[in-house]
Amino acid sequence: MAPPIGNDRHTSGHTPGHTRRALLAGVAAAGALGAAGCSRVATASTTSGGELLDRLKAQGVVRLGIAGEIPFGYIDRDGQLTGEAPKLAEAIFKRLGVDKVQPVPTEFGSLIPGLNSQQFDVVAAGMYVTPERCAQVIFADPDYQVLDAFVVRKGNPKGLHTYKDVVAKKAKFATGTGYAQIQHAVDAGYKQSDILIVPDQVAGLNAVEAGRVDVFAGTALTTRAVVKKSAKAESTTPFAPLVEGKPRIDGGAFAFRPTETKLRDAFNAELHKLKKSGELFRILRPFGFTKAEMTNLTAKELCAG
Q: What positions belong to coiled-coil segments (predicted)?
């Protein structure tokens, strides 16, 4: 992970963490598009609430910062932008009068710096809303919520269902670079130096299948997606990790520069219409989201910790 606090993965939680690296095909294609997508956007707004929305309408395109993580935002094997956040962005920005979205692939830890240095207009990467990040950017309300889950060998021979189980049974534990699950395990009593850090969920699955570790931790979304074709591994039932002794449910959302409240508020208004109509679930469902991931959480309550 370990980029500076607040710039780490969603993908989870309250500390450097989350959610989510790309599959190899997505990474390769994203790299090919990266050079073309890195020119800077116009200078920061000087008017109250920001004038970015007006500029986006005039130019007809919005630049999305993505981190190449399935299912949140990535480039597919055909070189096309996809994922829950880009597809949701397409729907909402079209309603706002902006017909085209353009990906700007970057590392997850570079999303907030890239947004604030105006390399793109909005972060569309399913980023977890945390107090640390809320000090650097402003968030729309979450478009999804998610619990943690484990990848374990078929039959879950060690009976690993929570981080406390991992500690109690002295299981060999792995999670992804920059995942919040690192801190979740540490909070449960697992020694951080004993955690195997792997690049992404695919590497985590490989480690479990090969017997190098007993468990890989990620979001319920990423773990159930990665084990679909595995004959050796399965995903456990999702659970809420304990943060300061209380169950924690994380939510992912779009991030905007602090000056662009007008754009954030307009985006939020359309997001809530999609939630109310059920269209949000129809957009997210093809990427493995279930009704359990739909949420009424707000950015305000998640920013408060």
A: none
